[in-house]
Amino acid sequence: MKIAIVGSGYVGLVTGTCFSEVGIDVVCVDIDEKKIENLKKGIVPIFEPGLDEMLTRNMKKGRLHFTTNIEEALADAEVLFIAVGTPPGEDGSADLKYVLEVARECGRFMKDYLLIVTKSTVPVMTAVKVKNAVQEELDNRGVSLPFDVASNPEFLKEGAAIEDFLKPDRIVIGLDSPRAEDLMRSLYKPFTLNGHPIIFMDITSAEMTKYAANSMLATKISFMNDIANLCEIVGADINKVRKGIGSDPRIGEKFIYPGIGYGGSCFPKDVQALIRTAAEYNYDLRVLKAVETVNNDQKAVLFNKMVKYFHGDLKDKTIALWGLSFKPQTDDMREAPSLVIIRKLLEAGAKIKAYDPVAMTEARHHLNDYIFYANDPYEALNGADCLALVTEWPEFKFPDFKIVKKLLKNPAIFDGRNIYDPREMKLSGFDYFCIGIDTSKEKQ
User: How confident is the model at residue 94 (pLDDT cuts 50, 70, 90)?
Assistant: First the structure.
């Protein structure tokens, strides 16, 4: 089987590479000529553990190809995945212009039956728009060719995307024809041999499933952050509360860790898009609006703690920042809490020395040279007035605290991910602040 994937960003690249890993002939398409040339050389534009090696291996075996020519990619392809971006518009709705342009190109260049699958995160009823765009182009050509449209939302976690694709929790597919179902069953057969479920449904339900899943996870995060803030006020310990509720199987242990808010390419965008979709149908998603408000406020919590510690004056203070990406194991800076914290610190007159294991190149695209980029965690600390832990990279979990204390002007740590033990920090002589615990009451 030969498939084409349009869009060689995070989703498209991981999808194409993983399909080629199980023996499928894959052509990845992108309009960015430089990106395609780099990919042909094995240069991957994103950081994702294991992706570089898998991509290179399948290119050498002749199963993975890259091009800027969609007409070339469509030759002999039975299935085409749309994996282009759907950036949020000013009103929060998903912008479908790239998705619909791919649909139109399918109508212009397809020569035989084609199954067109939306892999991009798209709002409900997008499949209807895709189908209409394809049919319009076929009509313009004066040809009648059969085609189907399906929805196959992705559920990849950045930093674990390869594992998620090869061993999925579930595969959700929305379609409306037996021919499309047969093709998708065949395509995903290698991934379901070990019992991983494939769930077929109507297209609208599949489109909604993606948004509902991400919105539920975002809700859990904002709920825990709201409870964490209340814990600090009343004197409860959020870590103990988390263990107490996480042991209930109806709640579970995942996505109930307090922190400084969610970021990335999915949760913020998808929550906004679902709110907007509801508004288009005259329905008010009150819970999700609160989720978004809590998350936006939570990104400022660490900054507010620093303002309080320095008695309202951060001017000319130097802040060491550990972690820039929105989560570990990725260089993704989209909607990262670090960006909110940094901008607030700069507005307050502070200086910033930051370190991240992989995201500093990407950070420069967002921050230019307004901050200092350190070569290692300890260089960031040297002469700083305090340390702010923003992203819980593994290498930050067990630093030499004697060196940390020696390098800082003030023995102050603001832990936005609760990776250190408050009592141990107090015993080591640090002024320690985290999320959901009033550390001023911590016994020494």
Answer: confident
Mean pLDDT of 236-264: 95
pLDDT in tens, 214-227: 999 999 999 999 99
DSSP letters spanning 30-54: -S-HHHHHHHHTT--SS--TTHHHH
Mean pLDDT over residues 132-158, rounded? 96
Decide if 277 contacts 124 (C-beta within 8 A). Answer: yes
Task: From the options 1.10.357.10, 2.60.40.420, 1.25.40.10, 1.10.1040.10, give the CATH code of 211-297.
Answer: 1.10.1040.10
**CATH code for residues 299-441:** 3.40.50.720
Strand (E) or helix (H) holding 206: helix 203-234
Confidence class of residue 434 from pLDDT cuts 50, 70 and 90? very high
From 18, 28, 106, 266, active-site residue? 266
* Residue 266: active-site member: yes
**CATH of 2-201 among 3.40.50.1980, 1.10.10.10, 3.40.50.720, 2.60.40.10:** 3.40.50.720
Q: Quick check: 144 and 33 in contact, CB under 8 A?
A: no
Domain residue ranges in the chain: 2-201, 211-297, 299-441
Cβ atoms within 10 Å, residue 386 = 26
Q: Residues near 167 by Cβ (< 8 Å), separated by ≥ 6?
A: 191, 194, 196
Could you tell me where the DSSP H helices lie in 299-371? 301-309, 337-347, 360-367
Question: Where does residue 60 rank: exposed (0-12), middle (13-18), buried (19+ CB within 10 A)?
Answer: exposed
The strand order across the sheet containing 372-373 reads: 372-373, 351-355, 318-322, 386-389, 412-415, 431-433
Name which of 88-97, 198-207, 411-420 the model is least confident about.
88-97
pLDDT of residue 441: 64
Q: Strands 79-82 and 114-118: what pairing? A: parallel
